[in-house]
Amino acid sequence: MTIPLIILAAGASTRMGKPKQLLSYQGRSLIQHTVESAIASFCNPVIVVLGANAQQIRSQFNQDLVQIVENPHWNLGMSTSIRSGISALNHDSQNIEAAVITVCDQPYISAEIINNLISAYSATKKPIIASQYAETLGVPALFSRQFFPELLTLNEDTGAKYLIKKYRDLVLAVNFPLGAIDIDTPNDYQNLQANIKLSE
């Protein structure tokens, strides 16, 4: 069973004011942390979709261990990065059963969180496995290959959550309470750093 993982890391971080992919987190950057978690998981291959600040960001991790896809239309919304990632998959391979889609600004992502999605899929064969946090369902999320054509037709700033809502009856939720924490603004980042200090 082959399940690739697609990391969406193409945004310009306009609310942060600087590339959030490069923010320091526990001795490395956020994108390094996400890539390392993905590589340590059951997923293979790991695809990183870059756009804004691509040259700076690609230097953050071992490019031999991931497949980098540059999305020239990143400024048109998250859907373009999802389409870029799904397009990079080998659709002729019958071994690809599903794909996990995640973002690079959830600091509490881990290989265990990713593997929980895959284990739930293996056990139940539900076609969508989504993370549950803050009374919502979102990424990281696993989509069986039956949804690849629809992921390729998402428009503008429509993300994977659109399909999770559309096919709610087909979704299995996996708890990831800390998935509610993502880093979009300087205040988000300050809160994260404060919480880390409190837990030390």
- The pLDDT mean sits at 95
How would you classify the helix and strand content by structural class? alpha/beta
Radius of gyration from CA coordinates: 16 Å
Tally of helical segments: 7
List low-pLDDT spans.
none
**How many strands?**
9
Strand arrangement in the largest pleated sheet:
5-4-1-6-8-7-9
Through-space gap between termini:
39 Å
The CATH superfamily is identified as Spore Coat Polysaccharide Biosynthesis Protein SpsA, Chain A
The name of the CATH topology is: Spore Coat Polysaccharide Biosynthesis Protein SpsA, Chain A
Organism: Calothrix parietina FACHB-288
Protein name: Nucleotidyltransferase family protein
Domain MobA-like NTP transferase: 6-168
What's the helix and strand layout?
Elements: E1 5-9, E2 24-25, E3 28-29, H1 30-40, E4 46-50, H2 54-58, E5 67-70, H3 78-87, E6 98-103, H4 111-124, E7 128-133, E8 136-144, H5 148-151, H6 161-166, E9 171-175, H7 186-199
Parallel strand pairs: 1-4, 1-6, 4-5, 7-9
Antiparallel strand pairs: 2-3, 6-8, 7-8
What are the main properties of this structure?
two-stranded antiparallel sheet, alpha/beta, 200 residues, seven-stranded mixed β-sheet, globular, Spore Coat Polysaccharide Biosynthesis Protein SpsA, Chain A
Can you characterise this structure?
The chain is globular and about 40 Å long. The N and C termini lie far apart (39 Å). The chain has 7 helices and 9 strands. With 200 residues, it is of the alpha/beta class. The longest helix is centred in the middle third of the chain and has 14 residues, at 111-124. The protein has one domain: Spore Coat Polysaccharide Biosynthesis Protein SpsA, Chain A (Alpha-Beta Complex), CATH 3.90.550. Residues 6-168 form the MobA-like NTP transferase domain. Pfam families: NTP_transf_3 (PF12804). This is Nucleotidyltransferase family protein.
